[in-house]
TrEMBL record:
It comes from Chlorella sorokiniana. GO terms for molecular function: hydrolase activity; nucleotide binding. This is Cobalamin biosynthesis. It comes from the Eukaryota. GO terms for cellular component: cytoplasm. It catalyses: GTP + H2O = GDP + phosphate + H(+).
Amino acid sequence: MRIAVIENEFGEVGVDDGLVVQANEEIFEMNNGCICCTVRGDLIRILHKLLKRKHAFDAILIETTGLADPAPVAQTFFVDDELKERVRLDAIVTVVDAAHILQHLDDTQIEEGAENEAVEQVAFADRILLNKCDLVDTEQLATITARLKAINAGAEVIETTHAAVDLRRVVGIRAFSLDRVLAEEPDFLDEGAEHSHSSSVTSVGIEAEGELDFKKVQAWLGTLLRERGTDIFRSKGILCLKGSDHKHVFQGVHMLLDFGSSADGVGRPWSPGERRLNRLVFIGRNLDREALNASFRACLATAPSASAE
C-alpha cells in the first residue's frame, strides 16, 4: 500500500521529519499553525497537488496536531468540489492517551468561547485507539472507557500499547458517514462556523546548533517537567549529544518522558557533513519562551547558536 502522510505540527519547528529513515510513505509537513483553522488552506493545496501526481496513492493519512478540531478538517472533503469528486473520507481515528485523558476531558482552565479539543476529538471519532493501556490499571481502564462511550457511544474503542494496531482496523474501513454527522451537527457544512483555541495554549520551538552535555539535558528536562509538567501537554526533540554520531530523541507527555536514539532504531544517525542542529518543541499552557530558550542553551557543551521562534 502506497500512503501519503500529511503531518500538521502546531509548533513552528518540525521534529518528526528528522526521524524518518525510509518508508513507502511520502510525508508532507504543515508547521506553525493548526490544520483546522490557520493552515487549512495549505491542506487543500497539498491535497490538490497529490491528486495531480501521475502515480496515485492508495491512501492519504492526515495526522493533525493534538489541538485540532477534526470537524473542519473533515468538512474540507465535502466543500471543495474536486476533493468531493475524487477523494473519499474513510474514517476519523482518534488516539487517546489513557494516562492523561481524564484530566484533559475535565480541564477547567479553558477560556469562555474556546473548545475543549479533547472532547471534540473523542466525539467526532469513528474509531478510538485507547493507547498506553499499560500505564493504567484495570479499574482505571474501565472508567476511561466508560467516559469515552458516554461522549461517543458509536465509536469502536481499540485498546493498544505503543499504538500497535492492525492497519485493517483503521484504514479502508468506510466508517465515516456524512448523514450521521449532519444528523448530529446540521451546520457541519457551514464554512463560516467559528473555531477557537484557548489563547493560553501556545508552542515554543527551539533550534540550536552544537553538541549537548547529556547530564545537563537530563537534569534540565527532569526539573522542567517536574515543576511545569502539568502545563506542558507535549514535548519532543532531536538532540545532538557530545561524542555521539547518533541522533538522540526525547518525547514527553506532561511528566512522562521517554528517550531513544538512532542506535535503538529511532530515526537515523547524523549523516556525514550534516548540520548538527538540535530541534525541540514544547506545547502547553503559559509557556515562558525566553526562559525555555535560555535554560536549554545552558546545556550546550559548545558555543551556542540558538533561537526560539
